TrEMBL record, chains A, B, C, D:
<feature type="domain" description="GFO/IDH/MocA-like oxidoreductase">
    <location>
        <begin position="144"/>
        <end position="276"/>
    </location>
</feature>
<dbReference type="GO" id="GO:0000166">
    <property type="term" value="F:nucleotide binding"/>
</dbReference>
<dbReference type="InterPro" id="IPR036291">
    <property type="entry name" value="NAD(P)-bd_dom_sf"/>
</dbReference>
<dbReference type="Pfam" id="PF01408">
    <property type="entry name" value="GFO_IDH_MocA"/>
</dbReference>
<feature type="domain" description="Gfo/Idh/MocA-like oxidoreductase N-terminal">
    <location>
        <begin position="5"/>
        <end position="133"/>
    </location>
</feature>
<dbReference type="InterPro" id="IPR055170">
    <property type="entry name" value="GFO_IDH_MocA-like_dom"/>
</dbReference>
<dbReference type="Pfam" id="PF22725">
    <property type="entry name" value="GFO_IDH_MocA_C3"/>
</dbReference>
<dbReference type="InterPro" id="IPR051317">
    <property type="entry name" value="Gfo/Idh/MocA_oxidoreduct"/>
</dbReference>
<dbReference type="InterPro" id="IPR000683">
    <property type="entry name" value="Gfo/Idh/MocA-like_OxRdtase_N"/>
</dbReference>
<protein>
    <submittedName>
        <fullName>Oxidoreductase domain protein</fullName>
    </submittedName>
</protein>
Length: 383, 383, 383, 383
């Protein structure tokens, strides 16, 4: 990647955590410059950001629609836009940029309805653009190693999946004395802002994506129990999954499990071995081959090969964290754009970033889960 | 306990692992002497055992029925019998000893059918005897501490349960090249010998019992998927559980999950905190109270109190293992017998051993699970 | 071992922790019967024990000297004596039984002075007896596996050793507010009762023994700093070690390190790999071969072979603890006695228990450490 | 920090790992722009870097001396220079920039001789500049929390220190068959390039700094054994330490300990509790208070306060790694510069970055260690 790309950002104003993560991740790649933006709906904050990020005044936009149109017309237009606005706005913003012929990388969830999701996917293909959805965890090198080991047949055929994503930051919502509802948690449990699901939509969908990424297994149907403990939306969910090939799995996600902060943990069991990866300790991969001692692989070592080695930033033993995982997603996304600009064909490996179709699958998964739970955990197919 | 009890054993011949565990566990208590036995259906082996265990010749029986009858008539009869025979024989043997007026401690599962189980329970009450079922894991001090913390309200109301029991010793059954079917595994997957379920019956039932012991929550209904991978009986199961109070949980058990040897792990999530206990590292308990650092409790320390402290054998930091857990079950069981012999009333704490009714619940749980799975994971009530 | 041995015990009265550990360990082996004893210097307690342990009245002795003499003369004399009295009395008691022609297994430390130690060693050989010293940790299967891996060259030549044994139970001795000095801790810091060293004598010596057992490396000289924090004897020690072959190591032991209960941890570094074993989690062995993932070996699995497999009691994944380690020492010790009684020669493997000479080395190690510390950490050779 | 700073870099050409770490760390702070540089002694590479980093041509310098002089004269001169060249060149480069009146942040080690080190320190004060030395590990939030807990008296008085820094990447240097000496390792064991020590100089000094940062304890003297296994310089070292207040500690560092990648682990033992931090899992802090369960603190949680909370970048449970630790050092360093530019006084907290005097202490520590080892581990005072 010798090119230097230009990018724009929608959302990510002062104090917005996720916008900062995206900017830092892109900065780690030293490959793209923030060139345009619509950072906040409040004029002053928007200008403040433009200033702080050294953006030329005429490319700080008060309205994302104007930004999409104007940028789409420029010769030196942004090469992609990064959408980090509230979830309820993803659909319309992404659509505007696609229509303007600009590649998009959007935070997850892609959007709220299956129809919208499929429309964005179709539009991406029609416009011949790249559309990434930030399923962060597939960016971790050890997740890429897990995928490789499965693909290489190291654990045989997958026979069972056990994955979970447990947090505890909404535990006060279910009572217990010292209520301390935060602004953040309130919108999380408001259907207007979160769509039809809170917990499955926010983190359950990460389980689905990470498992699919590693194993290539896509859920055919789910049998889900969502618990809302008297709130409008779910705070906890346990579900049985059947994949397209008939294999079964079990997923649990929660925002009310004390003692778990960001506990995504994925275990893939095969006929010859198993793999376990834990997000809070992401530089390790636990691999067990039948009849052998448990093995702990460490990121960055000589025996780690493939994409996990290519996307290694700092030497083994020096921990990388979440922002590097996001950087890896941008690395592939931006590299794919560069290749296209250079007239090169992108290989499957080049396109190693979560796509709009992964986003569609996520939305379908959320809808099936909610429907199943409403229907007393009846098996419900993903549409 | 100043009394020295006499006990008999049915099963536990040369090479029988579980019989040895029971004898060692009883020996650790230094409170009962093996006095009678019917160790093997093979005459020679039976006599050999009698000799090895220093048992008087006339109390080495070739037939358990004769043993029950004869011992029942003696003045110096055994105070209890320990039944460690193949699972398919538990019912008839236990029944014979109950009829003879002898207390019973039987390995799990109690028996194969719900009718048999309820019959044994009724008979126990009718005869006013003690009947223990060896759900081993409730004997661990840190499981007792978990129970106490829940009872004391330290984690608030239970809102979610996530428990699993994963092993990998039957992984060769599902193919993968180097088949090495053992004698042991063959009977495990034979309905004649294992009853209607292999995996749920063998280890899933331990999950049910351990969770019930700690939380007091009893499953009302289950939605289960059992995987048999072409074998007669299940080798893997994932299931949703609804307890009598409407709270939900998720259980997974397997004998084909590489990298797990005897992986019983129980996590109880409450409105104010959570508890995690892992059988392979049984001397610790992970406790998290809302808004506080994770705490690791160690067995035998000054801050561990209650039954967990009373049933502590060696100082903290010096690991105790499985056999001490079994010894603790015998401790309570034998103490209850002593109290009765001494004319003392047994308190609830005195009766802190898994009873025949726990055994009945286990059988009901297995039957509901199998029925649910046969019925496409439909919610199925425990009878 | 078809024979049933008879054994005697000196010490181990009511409430004595270590005596109970020895009795339980022997009981786990189902191979020896407690036949004689001198359990307490208090007549009543002594008789009470004799009664509790079902010992014939004429073999409950009020005086260990009488016991040694009388037992030595009997035709059905005890095959060995287990000495679990206060440390200050080990020398004279062991000597009495050796003189009476009775095999001895004594708790560590063997005794207090180098002269006494060497005298006991010489006497053992002169009398052609077996003398075990209970360096418990060499009895753990995974320590035996560590020894085997080193012997098999799996980690190449040993190039560095890092071992520690940290406890915190004497932390109140050094002040900090809520003093709660126990009876136990008082004698631990009294030279009359503990000899010239408390911490190094009590636990440092376990480090020395465990490392020597695994690696075959014997300290030639030490450079030690002992900290007593104003007490009479040491509570903490850090030391550099040079082995006979010139390789170096570092040992730390302490009874005042908060957060460590019985933290013996041994790391052996070789030119091709390394091994780590941690007493509080004794069923695992961490093995790293150069350029490969870290491997965690689990006790009882198929890939564990040799003595570690032979001395396996219960299946993998079901934790064994400290008492089984002691049982393994007795297993070898008693087996050696049986072989001798049967006229069989004992191989090196048969003699796989810590001997009186290991006890001598321990005493020399303690003396060198204390002398070095008194001499401002000057390198001090073991005599 | 509203200001945007300009910075220069010496070293950090294509493929230089450490230069990239510094650039990425500064980028994470979004507060300074790379404005000038002398990246490589090779003209072409130097220009290539200037181009890649968007630097104006006249500020890409072929010679660091010219760079120091020219930048020193500019009105829009760089606010600080980041020195990431080979260790042997640190002294002269840093000196040149100090003389030009430019603040310096230099990789460790500061330089090779005590004289040079003290000269740089004096020059810094004389010129009234800021000089940071990149002892990375003090930048981790949980190290800052450790410091705070010690300062707040949570573990009482420090009574013992046990710290280590183990790696294995030079294990091939000591033979073992498959030699694969890398270019990197060769210079590491060449005194011309590494100074008088390899292992202690490279990583031992990090132990010294991290312990001093957390506890405020400075080594008065050391008794060290350095092992070079036939190489010119040390690859392994074990040492006893006495601090200025008479308390003792033990340090181990190695580049040949298989199974350890970047294993800095620090344990601080106090009269009331203890603290443990492990660099490879940097988001946790293990804290044990006397008589209480072990506590695991997690970065980013509500109960973490002080500097550890202020320097938190992403939410708890989402791992931060090494580059964020370096970013934190730059954060404080750059903030101090901004304050000065703004005419504000810097408080002690504002100056929370490793200074030139910490660099001096590191050089003294290395010299004392080498001298002690040459003198048969004699106690050797730091000059």
């Amino acid at each position: 990647m010798d090119r230097k790309l230009r990018y724009g950002m929608v959302g990510g104003g002062p104090g917005a955590f996720i916008g900062a993560v995206h900017r830092k991740a892109i900065a780690l790649e030293e490959n793209a410059v923030l060139t345009a933006g619509c950072f906040s709906s409040k004029l002053e904050k928007n200008l403040e950001c433009g200033n702080a990020y050294n953006i030329e005044k005429d490319r700080v936009y008060a309205d994302y629609k104007v930004m999409a149109e104007e940028e789409g017309k420029r010769k030196d237009k942004i090469d992609f836009v990064c959408v980090v606005t509230p979830n309820s706005t993803h659909y319309e913003i992404c659509k505007a940029f696609l229509l303007a012929g600009i590649n998009v990388l959007c935070e997850k969830p892609l959007c709220f309805t299956i129809e919208q999701a499929k429309e964005l996917s179709a539009l991406t293909k029609e416009k011949n653009l790249y559309f990434g959805v930030c399923y962060t965890y597939s960016g971790y090198p050890m997740v890429k190693l897990a995928k490789k080991l499965v693909e290489d047949g190291e654990i045989g055929n997958v026979i069972n999946v056990n994955a979970e994503y447990l947090q505890d930051w909404l535990i006060d919502e279910i009572g217990g004395g010292d209520q301390s509802t935060t602004k953040l948690s309130v919108w999380r449990t408001d259907p207007e802002k979160s769509g039809i699901s809170n917990c499955v939509g926010d983190i359950g969908t990460h389980i689905e994506n990470t498992v699919a990424y590693i194993t290539g297994l896509h859920p055919k149907k789910v049998s889900a129990v969502l618990d809302s403990y008297g709130m409008e939306l779910d705070l906890n969910a346990n579900m049985l999954v059947e994949y397209e090939n008939g294999v079964h799995g079990v997923y649990s996600c929660s925002q009310v499990c004390a003692g778990h902060l960001n506990g995504l943990a994925v275990r893939i069991f095969g006929s010859k071995g198993a793999i376990e990866w834990v997000q809070e300790d992401p530089n390790y991969l636990r691999v067990t081959k039948k009849g052998q001692p448990v093995q702990i692989y460490h990121r960055g070592t000589g025996y780690v090969t493939g994409r996990a080695a290519e996307l290694n930033h700092i030497p083994s033993g020096h921990p990388e964290g979440l922002v590097f995982a996001v950087a890896n997603i941008y690395h592939s996304f931006m590299n794919a754009i560069c290749n296209k600009l250079d007239g090169k064909e992108n290989t499957k490996d080049d396109l190693d970033f979560p796509s709009v179709d992964d986003g569609v699958e996520g939305v379908c998964f959320v809808h099936a889960s909610v429907k199943s739970s409403q229907n007393h955990a009846a098996w419900t197919e993903l549409l």
